TrEMBL record:
<feature type="active site" description="Nucleophile">
    <location>
        <position position="38"/>
    </location>
</feature>
<feature type="domain" description="tRNA pseudouridylate synthase B C-terminal">
    <location>
        <begin position="180"/>
        <end position="238"/>
    </location>
</feature>
<dbReference type="InterPro" id="IPR002501">
    <property type="entry name" value="PsdUridine_synth_N"/>
</dbReference>
<keyword id="KW-0819">tRNA processing</keyword>
<feature type="domain" description="Pseudouridine synthase II N-terminal">
    <location>
        <begin position="23"/>
        <end position="179"/>
    </location>
</feature>
<comment type="similarity">
    <text>Belongs to the pseudouridine synthase TruB family. Type 1 subfamily.</text>
</comment>
<dbReference type="InterPro" id="IPR020103">
    <property type="entry name" value="PsdUridine_synth_cat_dom_sf"/>
</dbReference>
<keyword id="KW-0413">Isomerase</keyword>
<dbReference type="InterPro" id="IPR014780">
    <property type="entry name" value="tRNA_psdUridine_synth_TruB"/>
</dbReference>
<dbReference type="InterPro" id="IPR032819">
    <property type="entry name" value="TruB_C"/>
</dbReference>
<protein>
    <recommendedName>
        <fullName>tRNA pseudouridine synthase B</fullName>
        <ecNumber>5.4.99.25</ecNumber>
    </recommendedName>
</protein>
<dbReference type="Pfam" id="PF16198">
    <property type="entry name" value="TruB_C_2"/>
</dbReference>
<dbReference type="Pfam" id="PF01509">
    <property type="entry name" value="TruB_N"/>
</dbReference>
<comment type="function">
    <text>Responsible for synthesis of pseudouridine from uracil-55 in the psi GC loop of transfer RNAs.</text>
</comment>
């Protein structure tokens, strides 16, 4: 069994929990995930199986799409619904739709974000959430991310009994974007504390929620011996990398891990590129670090 399984991750499971479940269902150890989702987040989680586990490190999608709910009026330690409340401000009246649409429009394009304390970003060799669990707040550098598109996807609900406003939005963003931080930024622009109260990922690169199956569906397919039909080829996962087509003669050299002349049609600014022969990916190559004009294999895929 080889290929990419698009799993619809359930709520309450870590990405590692999902890998463990898939290993158990498929009775194979060669399973790996390609991009962590927090336990409370649902949606698209690409899982590599068999030979495809060799490409996990190359599958960081440049763009991802999420649907999130933001709660205006309350801020939390984690910036989402799992944290402790640290700030509250009563929303006296419903917030006008035009104002919310204006704020979303303001956030489109390149913006600065400061990673939340409860995140896996490393500062001085230690993850931020480790500092946070010790009760420490660490200065962390902001970084630029890109919001390609963002728009309202629900009605705006005003909860008069607790002075909060809730609404959902869809965002297509660059890798490294924290949607919970985006929810906080929406609140700041509206003049209130805020947090993300729900999140689901509906696409990661070329992989979409329409392709995804649940763990229950995977278990049924395994019983029927039909799992392979739901797996996408490894080559599909590498579509974001520049592609080099080679001849039979060069293919033999690639299989042997040869250092070869750098191809004219691949820009040297690319960190990695895929090497194909007859619609099959044979290897991932890179610019040779010490020999100008040459390329070397990063990974060779033997059958």
């Amino acid at each position: 069994m080889d290929g990419i399984l698009i799993l619809n991750k359930p709520k309450g499971f870590t990405s590692h929990d999902c890998v463990f479940k898939v290993r158990k269902i498929l009775q194979t150890k060669k399973v790996g995930h390609t991009g962590t989702l927090d336990p409370e987040v649902t949606g698209v989680l690409p899982i590599c199986i068999g030979r495809a586990t060799k490409v996990v490190e190359f599958l960081t999608a440049e763009q991802k799409t999420y649907v999130a709910e933001v709660t205006i009026g309350t801020a939390t330690t984690t910036e989402d619904q799992t944290g402790e409340v640290v700030e509250e401000k009563w929303v006296d009246n419903p917030i006008a739709k035009e104002k919310i649409l204006s704020v979303l429009q303001e956030l489109k394009g390149e913006i600065d974000q400061t990673p939340p304390m409860y995140s896996a970003v490393k500062i001085k060799g230690k993850k931020l959430y480790e500092y946070a669990r010790e009760g420490k707040v660490i200065d962390r550098p902001s970084r630029k991310v890109t919001i390609h598109d963002i728009f309202l996807t629900s009605d705006i609900t005003y909860e008069e009994e607790n002075g909060q406003v809730k609404f959902s939005f869809q965002v297509n963003c660059s890798k490294g974007t924290y949607v919970r931080t985006l929810a906080v930024q929406i609140g700041e622009l509206l003049g209130y504390p805020a947090h993300m109260s729900y999140l689901t990922r509906i696409s990661s690169g070329d992989f979409t929620i329409d392709q995804a199956i649940t763990l229950e569906q995977l278990s049924e397919l395994a019983e029927q011996g039909m799992v392979q039909e739901k797996l996408l080829p490894m080559e599909k996962a590498l579509s974001s990398l520049p592609k080099l087509e080679i001849s039979d003669k060069v293919a033999e050299k690639v299989y042997n891990g040869a250092v070869l002349p750098y191809p004219e049609n691949i820009d040297e600014s690319n960190e990695y590129f895929s090497v194909f022969h007859e619609d099959k990916c044979l290897a991932i190559y890179m610019k040779h670090p010490s020999k100008p004009g040459l390329m070397k294999p990063k990974k060779v895929f033997h059958d």
